[in-house]
Amino acid sequence: MKEFKYKIIGGKKVYDVTDVICRKLLKVADEAIINCFPKPGKGFSVAVLTKTGNIYEGVSYISDTYTLTMHSEATALAHAAIHGETEIIAITGPNCHICKQLIWENSLQSDIDIIVVIKENNQIKKVPISEMMPYPWPEKKQ
Q1: pLDDT at position 134
Q2: What are phi and psi of 126, to 5 degrees?
Q3: Which family does this protein fall into (predicted)?
Q4: β partners of residue 24
Q5: Structural domains in the chain?
């Protein structure tokens, strides 16, 4: 089990995720895109990092009607949950607003301000989900 350092900011844990780990997360997400359904390589993929140091990928699962489509963030969170891991400390992005809401709700339940890892101009950006949700709903755990 990997130990990550964290700080308490705004009442939530914010874990220190190194650039090396962020690049590994981004690589896992990039490699997972071939598993998108129904067309390999067509869709989106992400990777989540759990508090224990495990990485789980998720891919788009697109339905013909689109109404039943599962976003890669939802499948990654479910993939981790299937393995008994619900304490997510980082996820790759950028993410659509529906998925930001899902990440926010996971953050509320775990009291972890999940870091969204984005690669921009070959630089790693780490943005806490709380910064991406300035007017969140719900504001606190239900």
Answers
A1: 85
A2: -125, 110
A3: Belongs to the cytidine and deoxycytidylate deaminase family.
A4: none
A5: 6-132 (3.40.140.10)
